[in-house]
Amino acid sequence: MAPRTHQPLAERLRPKTLGEVIGQQHLLGPGMSLRIAFESGQPHSCILWGPPGTGKTTIARLMADAFDAQFLSISAVLGGVKDIREAVEQATAARDGLTQQRTIVFVDEVHRFNKSQQDAFLPHVESGLFTFIGATTENPSFEVNSALLSRAAVYVLQSLNEGDLKQIVAKAQAIQAVPAIDEAAIDRLVAYADGDARRLLNTLETLAVAAGAEKLTNITDEWLLRVLGERMRRYDKGGEQFYDTISALHKSVRGSDPDASLYWFVRMLDGGADPRYMARRLVRMASEDIGLADPRALRLALDAAEVYERLGTPEGELALAECVVYLAIAPKSNAVYKAYNAVRALVKKDSTRPVPMHLRNAPTKLMKELDYGKGYRYAHDEEGGFAAGERYLPEGLEGQVFYEPVERGLEIRIAEKLRELRRLNTNSDR
Q1: If exposure means fewest CB atoms within 10 Å of the residue's CB, which of 40, 135, 159, 429 is most exposed?
Q2: The whole model's pTM is what?
Q3: Could you tell me which CATH number the domain at 240-329 has?
């Protein structure tokens, strides 16, 4: 008798029905958009956008089952036009066969396909030969052709939360795929998975093999750390050390110390932090701590994130490191950050103040008769392109100042400009 092929734990636990799907209830719960799509009986092309391990492939397969459709999977990393051509042939055969079966073509990491490769799907999607489902971890607005995007609904998947991941552990234990696991060890596994079900399942499978070799019936936190090594010990996403380290990086950048900033950045990477997470934090630093003192910083942070997406590890990490150093030495300002929070706090507690009449839009005759827009001064027609003395804040907030630029970087010039504008307002006879 031939030996049975080993089936990965992820496949053994893959949901067979919508009811078995863990997470994504904002899409799959009763009355939610994707649930309605399933229940409609009519498949439609869509893009599933979300982080790794959130169930994109699973949902695509369930769609194929729900609509009794042939399921064809293409990896945009490994595939090309040849795979698309073969999918077209298989879809044509299924459509023209005796059973006249529908076809769903699932493209994993669709953002990896170039424009011409993505364009190759268009005529077949438009003709109805197959239903296209793309999966991506990147924003489809930037990574998917507008023509293809316009023909597909976009569903945003979310990282699994702690409760979702613990359900997966319980399911693995229910089929006796893993031994009993102490609560502390489960917490560490869930933190390490960081919302990624695939990472969790792969780790559980590794543990099961190791525990079987040692004939263990219970996995403790101590044993978990010993088996998975130093990386898990350092990379405790839900733990104190992770947040302490990212805090040290942020404060070193804010404190304009490039050496310390670079040190903590590398410590984060060495500890297993996702470079994409680090890129997001750098964008935040550029916006929150540098702001208009050096507007180039935000652009550089976004560019560094894009470079990492194109090059990956380790080459792309250099671009992030360059960004860290630039942010550290850039002039600092949180003036806009403070102003924004001040306005938010005011709007939250304040009444809904009416828009001044001269600022209101007046598209109809009636509105004009009601003095909508009356007395508005078109700034471009005024001297210097500035309507000195004009009022833009609602009644009761006249003269209120929220934004106070600092005397650093570009904000030195912004402050000079503001002082001049305020002088003109003060001297205006209006």
Answers
A1: 429
A2: 0.56
A3: 1.20.272.10
